[in-house]
Amino acid sequence: MADAIRTDDISPMDIDARVDAVLQEMTLEEKAGQLNSVDASSPDPGSRLADDIRAGRVGAVLNQVELHEVCALQHIALEETRLGIPLLFSRDVIHGFKTVFPLPLGQAASWNPDVVREGARIAAAEAAATGVRWTFAPMVDISRDARWGRIAESLGEDPVLAAALGAAMVEGFQGDDLSAPGSIAACVKHYAGYGASEAGRDYAATSIADNEMRNVYLPPFKAAAEAGAATFMTSFGDIDGVPATGNDYLINGILRGEIGFEGLMISDWDSIGQLIVHGFCESPQEAARLAAEAGVDMDMMSSAFVDFMPTLVREGQMSEQVLDTMARRVLTLKFQLGVMDDPYADVHRHGTPPVRDAMAVAYQAALESLVLLKNQDDVLPLDFGTLKSLTIVGPLADQPVEQMGTWVFDGDAARSVTPVTALKEALSGKAEVKFVPGLTHSRDIRHDGFQAAVDATASSDAVIVCLGEEAILSGEAHCRADITLPGAQLELVHALKAAGKPVIGVIMAGRPLALTNVIECFDALIYAWHPGSMGGPALVDILSGAQTPSGKLPVSFPRSVGQIPIHYNRKNSGRPPEPSKVIHIDDIPVGAGQTSLGMSSFHLDDGYQPLYPFGFGLSYTSFEYGEVQVSAPEFASGESLDVDVELTNVGERDAIEVVQLYIRDRAASLTRPMRELIAFQRVSLKAGETQTVRFTLTETDLAFSRRDKTFGAEPGWFDVWVGRDSTTQNGAEFKLTSAQ
Ligand code: GLC
Fold first, then answer.
1. Fewest CB atoms less than 10 Å from the CB: which of 9, 27, 279, 658?
2. For residue 268, which of 136, 138, 153 has the smallest C-alpha distance?
3. Mean pLDDT, residues 165-180 taken together
4. 129 Cβ partners below 8 Å, 6+ apart?
5. Are 152 and 105 in contact (CB under 8 A)?
């Protein structure tokens, strides 16, 4: 930094004092310049960006990951501006950098905070080595709509699972010390309620009741803030008529006032400027004022703050104190990251983890993300010792880039090992492996490749068919109204089935697909999401039985798009559906007289249950659950309750089971979901081993945002279930006799 603001005489640990020392030297324009985040990958980045930096109009740069360019831009900020305040460089490091981990939705299927944390740690180190010190992740938007393209980057439909994994990502990215080598600032997004976009169309308005916002969408943000997240990002959404980026109630009221978040809030890309498009204000100056007053500190790509904050202050429309608070949060982040003292990216300082180690973590993450949805007659695992010939087919069987999934800018395709590569390596010298694509890409509608695939299958022991979606069919702005397999993939599977050999399905997709029209064709089905760099080896190790699947669904799989929104933690309604009450459309007599058939909440054609429920996933072994034992029939505020279940691995393979505990609050000041995940444990059991799995509940576990907006539990009766997925009937009951 320029001599004008040396803070050497202040303890490096006293960041507040150091920020004050800088702030008092700054002009209104310089303060406003720190609030401006500018993209380096847009057209004419060289001239315009450098000039803007030189003019003190830039506080952070996103999407510059060329080390020499980073250092060149930093040099301009340090040497060619009056105060020499360093820039902060950012990037969307969503699920990996060079080494790519499964989609966040796939990582959520691991139900393993440790592997998620480790992946974020690796991604942070790889990114930091290029000068990136701030990532725009984790995305913790609860999503119950598979049409929405961004469900791919979410952690699923459940607040407790998303909270646990989102917090783990924050810890992985930031480590114990933001200024340490390899640490980068997390940015929790998109605050808030983005996943409720109407009709699953991205950027669409949302209508979220406050109780739903507080009890469903906000808990993962609260957990991430409590995990120490340095920054947050507003969503594009219009929340009940008030866009998130101008939503004082959500930001200053709840996030800062109730949750106590003191860090930096950045807008999403031009979402300040979009306040005009929403119809929330008429000018960029007004947009700047509304966003600043709502609690937004930094402006990504609309330049409203840098252009109008000085004017707003000079015209008395905005107190300089508000501007100071915003600039303070930016400077504080830069001091916390060590950028003010060590501004130049130094690949040696940060160092990148050895590729081998990174790939080992990517393998483990991919392995634990795979969900076995079907395994008819235990067709899996295949016996690689006796197989003579195996055919692998499909548009996603050998696509190193597609298998990395959406939101991958820096993924190293050379590191991406496909199922074809992994299969050939695993069976080299043991069995013949024939690869016939059948289709060139997931949207391919031509059948001319089918016959070769069928012929190869007919002369093999079995066929592995890798289907799904290209990476571009999910992610931001890429929503689908039809969530079945695209292109002619369904026809391909039917053609392969006709060859009369076992058909092992592998689906790579950025969302739950509607599989009702194809599931019967598979003898076995593994859902791989987009599994990242090591998707191939992980998949082959499951296929061969070298590894046993443990993944569990973090999101419900609808039978058809017509069931959406569908999620396990639905409200009971006054006429809840039950199997006995469901009437199928084909069972209605012709000429039936007027009657309210079934008198409960279901669809005549698809019923009310998903094709696969939240928490579901098969193993190569079987687990038996003993009865749920509660340590007492009731407990009071301040006490706890043990909930035990005996779990036995009755199969012949060592394996991991994700044991899930659900409750239902039978009666409360607000109706509560008919099932709520409260806790889960990954339990490793050897073949034949029995273990008592214990959960200890307190009233905090039963707490929710009540009708009066206070957070706490309410006395009364509860159901409690412990089982393998959200449909478990293995339950007991207990009473909470008092609560705070
Ligand atoms: C995008 C996304 C956001 C991302 C940002 C920067 O529009 O909504 O998630 O972090 O812009 O790329």
1. 9
2. 136
3. 97
4. 67, 182, 345, 347, 350, 351, 352
5. yes
Three-state SS for 372? Answer: strand
Any atom of ligand 1 within 6 Å of the Cβ of 189: yes
User: Is the preceding omega at residue 565 within 30 degrees of 0, hence cis?
Assistant: yes
CA of 149 to the centre of ligand 1 (A): 13
Q: Which amino acid is at 116?
A: V
User: Does residue 723 have a pLDDT over 60?
Assistant: yes
Catalytic residue from among 141, 238, 268, 444: 268
Neighbouring-strand partners of residue 677: 662
Residues contacting residue 83 through CB under 8 Å, at least 6 positions apart = 1, 2, 4, 5, 22, 25, 26, 30, 56
- Tell me how far CA of residue 507 lies from CA of 106, 359, 395, in angstroms: 12, 22, 10
Residue 392: what are its φ and ψ, rounded to 5°? -125, 130
* CB of 324 sitting under 6 A from ligand 1: no
Q: Which atom, in ligand 1's list, is nearest to the CA of 187?
A: 10
Q: What is the mean pLDDT of residues 129-140?
A: 96
- C-alpha separations of 378 from 384, 504, 619, 652 in Å: 15, 11, 10, 13
Q: Distance from the CA of 382 to the center of ligand 1, in angstroms? A: 42
Say whether 719 is catalytic: no
Query: What is the predicted pLDDT for the residue at 12?
Result: 72
Question: Looking at residue 265, what is its pLDDT?
Answer: 99
Can you state the angle between helices 535-543 and 419-427, rounded to 10 degrees? 50
pLDDT band at 504 (very low <50, low <70, confident <90, very high): very high
417: three-class secondary structure by DSSP: coil
Dmax over Cα atoms in the chain, in whole Å?
A: 90
In this prediction, residue 313 has a pLDDT band, given cuts at 50, 70 and 90, of very high
pLDDT for the residue numbered 474: 98
Q: Which residue has the higher pLDDT, 348 or 538?
A: 538
Average pLDDT, the chain: 96
Q: Where are the beta strands (DSSP E) in 205-328?
A: 231-234, 238-239, 242-243, 264-266, 299-300
Is 476 close to ligand 1, i.e. is its CB under 6 Å away?
A: yes
Strands of 381-442, DSSP E? 389-393, 432-436
User: Who wins on pLDDT, 347 or 227?
Assistant: 227
At 581, the pLDDT band (50, 70, 90 cuts) reads confident
The residue contributing the CA closest to ligand 1 atom 7 is 269
Proportion of the chain above pLDDT 90, given as a percent: 94
Are 122 and 358 within 8 A, CB to CB? yes
CB contact at 8 A, 504 and 463: yes
Torsion angle of alpha carbons 108, 731, 711, 554, nearest 10°?
A: 10
State the pLDDT at residue 3.
Answer: 58
For 17-64, how does the pLDDT look when each residue is reduced to its tens digit (9 = 90+)? 999 999 999 999 999 999 999 999 977 766 799 999 999 999 999 999
* 3-class secondary structure, 255: helix
Assess contact for 188 and 233: CB atoms under 8 A.
yes
User: From the CA of 527, how far away is ligand 1's center (Å)?
Assistant: 27
Q: What is the mean pLDDT of residues 242-270?
A: 98
Q: Is 268 in the pocket of ligand 1 (CB under 6 A)?
A: yes
How confident is residue 11, by pLDDT bands cut at 50, 70 and 90? confident
Residue 504 β-bridge partners: 464, 524
* Dihedral angle sign, alpha carbons of residues 290, 41, 48, 338: positive
